[in-house]
Every structure is written in C-alpha cells, then in structure tokens.
Amino acid sequence: MGEVSRGRWCCPHPGARPVVLACLRLAGWLPPGRPAGGGILRDMWGAEAFRIVWYRFRCTWGERWAGYLALVLLLGLVGGLAIGSVAAARRTQSAFPVYLASTNPSDLTVLTGLYGVAGSQGYDPALIAKIAALPGVRHVASYAGLNVEILEPGQNAAANAGSQGLDGSIDGEFFSTDRLTVVQGRMPNPDSTSEVVIDAKGTPPQVRVGTVAPLGFFTNAQVASGRPGKPHLTVTITVVGKAVFSSEAVQDDTDTQRDGSAVFTPALTRLLTRCCADFTETAVQLEPGTTVAAAEASIQRVLPKGFPVEFYVTSLTAAKAERAIEPTSIALAVFGGIAALAALLIGGQIVGRQLRLDAAELGTLRALGASPAVTTGDGLPGVLGAVVAGALVACAVAIGLSPLAPLGSVRAIYPYRGVAFDWAVLGAGFALLVVLLSAVAAVIAYRRAPHRRPGRGRPGRAAGSAVVRAAWAAGLPVPAAEGVRLALDPRAERGSVPVRSAIVGTAAAIVVLLATVTFGSSLSTLVSHPALYGWNWTYALTSGEITVHDAQAVLDHDSEVAAWTGGWFGSGQIDGVTVPFLGADADAPVGPPLLSGHGLRGQGQIVLGAMTLAQLHKQVGDVVTVSDGAPHPVRLRIVGTATLPSLGISGTLHTEMGTGAVLPYEDIPGAAGGAPDVVLVTLRPGANLAAQQRLLQRIVPAADGGVVTPVQRPAEIVDYRSMGTAPVVLAGALALGAVSSLWLTLMASVRRRRADLALLKTLGFTRRQLSATVAWQATAAVVAGAVVGTPLGIAAGRALWDLFARQISVVPEPTVPAVTVAAIVAGALVLANLVALLPGRVAGRTPAAALLRAE
Predict the structure, then answer these.
(1) pLDDT confidence band for 91 (50 / 70 / 90)
(2) pLDDT score of 12
(3) β-pair partners for 198
(4) Which DSSP category does 603 fall into?
(5) 3-state SS string over 439-481?
(6) What is the pLDDT at residue 782?
(7) Which residues pair with residue 574 across a beta bridge?
(8) Which of the residue ranges 152-161, 289-298, 388-397, 788-797 has the most confident prediction, judged by mean pLDDT?
(9) 618-633 residue pLDDT tens
C-alpha cells in the first residue's frame, strides 16, 4: 500500500496483485464496478490513460522535482544564450538604420559653394533656393566651411588661416537635419555665438568639454592674399559637447583621417557666410517616391557651368555601415547556433535520464495490464511541463541579455538602449525548444515502453567491453578498474544503464566548446593578421608626388625591404556599377591577397573584390566593361578575386574589404600614368620598424605632405574590436552549462549504479574507494567523450569559420589553438573529478544492506 501511494508499481509476489488493484480503485485510478481481471487496464486509452499518467506524475513529484528543476534551469540558461545571441545579432545588424532614422537624415548632400571656382563666393543662397524649389525636394539645410584659426598668444596663427574642418550650421544642418549624436556634454544653443560642439573622433585629447579658446575668423580675400593680418571677427568659444556625425559612426581607418572637426551654431555662422565661407554643402531631403538618381539629375541642371559636381548619398553610407557591422552580427548568430545545438543536446540528455529513471517499473505496470498508452505516457507530463517552463525561462534570459546589444561601434550612439523584445526570435526560439525536445521525449518514451522491448528485463551477458577488460589487464587499482566498468559497461542488475548517452553528452559538450574556441581563435587571428583582410604589406607611402626614381634609390638598396611596388588610385564604372580602382603593374611583387584565380599577368585583365564580383553577377573568366565616361571604354577579363584593403584617399571612394578592383594602371580610363599615388612596402620579418619608418619618410618628406601609413583596418575589423569582452562572457556562460550537464550526468549515473555501488561496499570497499570509483567513472566518461568530441569540435569550428570568412570576403585561414585544445581537455578531466566529489560522497553513503534487500 505504501509503495503504491508513493507512485511505485512494485508487485513482489503475484498474490499481492489483488491488493494492488484494490489500492488502485481506492486511489481513484479505476472506476468503481469494473472487473478486477488481469486485463482491466489493457483497454484504458484516451482520458482514462491520461488520468492514470497524471496521477502517477503527482505521486512521483516528490522524487523527480529536482530533475525537472535541473532541466528548467539548464535549458533556460543555455537556451537563453542561444535565443539572446540570435536576437543580439538581429539587433546589431539593424542598429545603424535605426540610429540613422533617429537623426532625421537627408537623402543626399551636394556641394553648392566653393570659393574661387566658377565664380562661386563660397556661399550661394540663390543656388540653394533653386535646389529647394526643384520638384521632389522636400527640405534643404546647409552648412559652411569657415576660415578660422585658434588664436594663441605669441604666435602668428593667422598665417595658417583656412577651413580646418571647422564647419558652421547655416539653417539647422547638424542641429535638426542630420542631427549630431552627443556622447558627452550637450549640443550648443543654436542662438548662442560663443558655443561649439566638437567631433568626438579625432579631436586632440587636450580639447575637452569646457575648453575655452579665442578663435579668429578671416575673409576669403584675406586667405587668398596669403597675408591675413587681423581677423575679421574674434570670438571666444566654449566647447560644450562632443558628438558623432552619422557619416562617422562606422568607418575604416582610412576615413578616420578626416575626423576632428567642429560645428558652430547657426547664430554665429549667419554672421560669417557672406565673407568667410570657403565652401558650402547642402543636405537634401526628398519627397516620398522621388529617387536619388532623379534628384541628382535635376540638381546638375541648376548648377553653374564648370562647377564641380559632388554628391554624397546617405544610402551608400548606410550600406557601407551595414556591411561593416555584418561580421559582428554573423559571429553572434554563429554563437547562437552553437548555443542552440548545446541546449538541444543538454536538454535531450536530461529528458532521457528523467524518462529512464523508473523504466524498470514499467514492466510491472505492463504485467498488471496497463495499455501501451499508459506505459508510453508515464513520466511525460513532468518532462513536457519542464521543457515548456525551461523554454519560457530561456526567453526571459534572452530578454535579460537584450540590453547588451547592439554590439560593436554603433552601440555608443544607439538611441534605444535597454530591454528589447524581438518577438520573432523569442517565438521561434520557444517553439524550436518545445517542439524538438517534446519530440525527443515522445520518441524516448515510446522506445522504452515494455511493449516495444519485451525482453528488456532479461539479464545481459556478463562479458564487459574490451576497454574494461583492458583496464583489468593493465593492472589498474581496483577502484580505477571498477570506475571504468561503471562508465563503459551498460550491464546492470535490473535492466541496462545508458552509458552511451552519458558519453554522448560529454562528447557533445566538448564539441560545443571546441567549435566555439576554434571559431573564436580564427576570428582573433583574422583581427591580428592584416594580410588576411587585405593589408598584405607593411607600410603605404603617400605624398603629393612620388617619383619612382627616388623610391628605387632607397628601397632597392635597403636590406630590410623584402619587396615594394607602386599603386594608382581611381574610380569608374564596371558594367554601370561605380567601383573604386587600385592600379598596379602586371606581376607586381606586392599586392592584395588572392581568394581565387590569379593576379594580373598583363593587359586586358582585372581582379575584383568578392563582393564586387557578386554585385556584378559575374564569375572568374567573364568579360566586363570599364569606363569613367571617356569615349573609349575598356573591356577586361576577370582573372581572379582578392581581399582588398582599406586603401585610398580619405573622404573619397576607395577600396575596402571585398569591394573594388585591381587592374593595370594603364587601363584605368583617363589615367595619365606617371608617378604612382602610393608605394607599398613589405619589410622582412624582424625588421626595425621605427628605423625603417624614419628611412621611408625620406621618400615622402613630411614637409611636402608625405605620410608613412601603417596598417589601415577596414570598418569590419574596427567594429569587431569594439565588441569588448562580450564574446568571452557568452562563451563562459556556455561552458558553465556544459559543466552543469556533466555534473547531472554523474549524479544520475550514481543513482542508476546504486546496486553496483552497494555490492562493492558489501565486498569491502571503503568510502574513499567508492569515491575514487566514481572519480574514475567520471574520468573514463570524459576521456571517451574527448576522444570522440575533440576532432568533431575542431572540424565543426573550422567549417563554421570557412563559411564565415567567405561571407565577409577575407582569406579563409582557420586556426586551431593546440594549447587551448589541450587545456580544455585537461580542464575537462579536472572538472570531471571536481564535480565527482559530491556524487562520490553520495556513493560512499549508499545504504548497502537496505538497498540490496530491496533488490
């Protein structure tokens, strides 16, 4: 009677069967008046089967609640990491468009004034009014580049007066249109003439919020004369804030060279536009339905004859920013996929253990006449309820992690930080966990049912596995040999012990960890090896004019220079698509790293960036037409693809990772040849970089504007490096879930092996020997899991990295950190023995006499 009340179905003697059936009727499991024959439960399907299963769930709750709680917590932790990572990936990828929309962006910006060009005075209100009146134009706002210099006592700073990146808002640009994002301090009062906001990027560190400085503003005529003299207007300005321009939110190192500007208020700028504006640019917002191309055509018709045409299209800036953010979001999505796999594996392991806890009792239940529906459904209500609860906890964890996103450089300016609800990801993640784990539970419950395995209760063969026999033959201590047997031999006194599932669980945890480590190591290698993202040289030398003769005189006689070559910048259209060019000599010794095909070997050939190739819908071997509007376009054959560097002139169209083309400089339409725009120099390993930089400066003297440029990182690498410690935190939480799963596996194994442990204790094992046996059991399971999981984890990490590298157009060079892999395997062994301490103590306290008497 007591056993039935606790949900047990043990019937030690056939004579007790009527007593058990009477107890079932009293408990409400059987309706009154039903005959108590041997098959009274056999026809119980549907609602009555559910009533029996539900009653048994309530009776066994006291014994199984800890297992249900473990399933809820682990599924919540690891599943929450998976859902949270995917949601963070989506939030990160969409962060820049969301941020840009918050700035009230213009659709395009056009140059509307340039002092001394085509009769322009630097500020032309009539031209701006014409643009504002064009069809499809909704609003315009302008800013001017002012001739200004900081006035320092004792210095004739006025001699260098000019537009130094210090701009003034004329009618709300940067204040109401294309709004700046303040990261420190505040925006200036538009009606104040003594406040300024400075660029948070590139500003010298000595210029801070609160800095006060006298500024002198000069007329265009003063600047043109070369002897400015006394400033036209002197104003003492206070820095009240630091802000970020939307065009600078996500950028590569090449574009950061133009950072460090400042913006004056409309009140001050309006005093200076007629005299001191070197140039003016006008931001244009279009009516819905008006295309940028149509607006550009209309604007060109009203520009003065001979005036330079310069358009800056906001959608191109946004597209570039989204491309730069994409590697970060893809990396987060990959981690989310790995975590999701871990959640399903860990959850499946716990579900299997819970359903197999009392599998031996199902034979008794079947002998009493229980239908297949009852034996199959036994234990399912608790497991399915725990799965649903765990999925809900996972969603809650994902929501709790949402303030960590977006990651990357856009995080500092994202306008809507805090908790976010990505219902699409939350719903899909919840459904995935519930549906797949419920299906796993149903399959396990069906396969373990007695009607599926009628011979389940027969004793297995006494022979152990080959590994167990080898352990005995090797002369291992008795606790060690017994631990190996318990870990690898599935035979038990009553039915079988699922050692394979324990080993599979350990292997799965190692696969997940090593796949994550391999992917992360490859990502770190990419960031630390510029050649993998296109910068396949040491320095780039630029100046107003570089002579090949001067370069040869220095570089050909420098023993620390491995190779060098010249390069030419340009841009044009390839089959109608505007593309930046890098001109080069055929068979140049230095160039971007190739991804496919071969480099330039002569005239009529071109190498494209992988993204440009995809944008053109071409493949290696196809022919393209290159033109910049010249009468005779050039037809070139695509001979390869390359990872292109961030290289070119700051503020203009230049090559980027995966975007651009390499072609013979003679084939650049309109190119006059002559001196190269850049000299690319590769130094030998171990070269003295500081000394070489001074030597190379002789080729491009600083007095002539020469620059020796080290590695220029593309925006994708800059963005990833700004992620900080978030990947480490996520990986650490995933490792915690794997360790917890291993601990639960050991605890369950001790419970399933309690008869074996009791027998060992009866034969004379001390508590220390029993604990040692459990420790060796854990070690054997981890070793077996490591043998299987290590190669699979490394292979999975390499495969994921190859897919990722091709997606972002970098050299796919995965790296396997051998030391880290060895440390993980060794750490797994150490952790296995640490987590085995508590199960070992439980084993040492096994009540041998009572347990063996019950058996």
Answers:
(1) very high
(2) 39
(3) 242, 262
(4) T
(5) HHHHHHHHHHCCCCCCCCCCCCCCCCCHHHHHHHHCCCCHHHH
(6) 79
(7) 577, 626
(8) 388-397
(9) 999 999 988 865 667 8
Amino acid occupying residue 47: A
Q: Are 640 and 697 in contact (CB under 8 A)?
A: no
119 CB burial (10 A radius; 0-12, 13-18, 19+): exposed
| pLDDT over 90 at 391, yes or no | yes
Rg of the chain's alpha carbons, rounded to an integer?
37
Average pLDDT, integer, range 683-710: 82
Q: Where are the domains of the chain?
A: 121-303, 466-534+713-855, 536-710
Which pair of structure tokens corresponds to residue 582? Answer: 């890098």
- Helix (H), strand (E), coil (C) string for 22-63: HHHHHCCCCCCCCCCCCCCCCCCCHHHHHHHHHHHHHHHHHH
Strands annotated E in 300-456: 311-313
Q: What are phi and psi of 169, to 5 degrees?
A: -75, 130
Quick check: 124 and 112 in contact, CB under 8 A? yes
- Convert the pLDDT of each residue in 766-801 to its tens digit: 777 777 777 777 777 778 878 888 898 888 888 888
Other Cβ atoms less than 10 A from the Cβ of 587: the count is 12
Q: Are 311 and 109 in contact (CB under 8 A)?
A: yes
Q: How far is CA 347 from the centre of its chain?
A: 25
Mean pLDDT check: name the lowest of 46-50, 71-75, 332-336, 745-749. 745-749
**CA 276: distance to chain centroid?**
47
Q: Are 308 and 117 in contact (CB under 8 A)?
A: yes
C-alpha torsion angle, residues 156, 161, 166, 168 (rounded to 10): 120
Nearest to 570 by CA among 658, 666, 640: 666
Phi and psi at residue 203, to the nearest 5°: -75, 135
Cβ count near 577 (within 10 Å): 12
CA 530 vs CA 75, 533, 810: distances in Å: 40, 5, 10
Q: Which of 368-382, 617-631, 725-739, 759-773 has the lowest mean pLDDT?
A: 725-739
Alpha-carbon separation of residue 46 from 53, 56, 374 (angstroms): 11, 16, 9
Q: Do 88 and 755 meet the contact criterion of CB atoms below 8 Å apart?
A: no
The phi, psi pair for 750, rounded to 5°, reads: -60, -40
Which residues have CB under 8 Å from 442's CB, separation 6+? 380
At residue 110, φ and ψ (nearest 5 deg) are -130, 145
Average pLDDT over residues 237-246: 90
Q: What is the pLDDT of residues 282-298, one digit of tens each?
A: 999 999 989 888 898 89
Confidence (pLDDT) at 463: 42
360: its two tokens: 């031996």
Other CB atoms within a 10 A radius of the CB of residue 136 amount to 15
CA distance 757 to 765: 9
CA distance 831 to 455: 38
The answer to whether 633 and 669 have CB atoms below 8 angstroms apart is: yes
Residue 741 one-letter amino acid: S
Q: Which of 12, 30, 13 is nearest to 21 (CA)?
A: 30
In one letter, which amino acid is 333?
A: A
Helix axes 837-844, 818-835, angle to 10 degrees: 30
Instruction: Fill in the amino acid letter for 100.
Output: L
Provide the token pair at 163: 């537009």
Spell out the residues 6+ positions from residue 411 whose beta carbon is closer than 8 angstroms to its own: 95, 405, 417, 722
Q: How far apart are CA 765 and CA 26, in angstroms?
A: 45
DSSP letter for 262, please.
E
Digit-coded pLDDT (tens) for 801-822: 888 888 888 888 888 888 888 8
Which tokens go with 615? 């944008």
Q: Is the pLDDT of residue 498 over 90?
A: no
pLDDT 10s digits, 513-566: 788 788 888 888 888 888 998 898 998 888 766 777 777 878 888 888 899 888
Strand positions, DSSP E, 491-560 = 539-542
Give the tokens for residue 620: 């290696």
Question: pTM above the 0.85 mark?
Answer: no
* Average confidence (pLDDT) over 465-483: 71
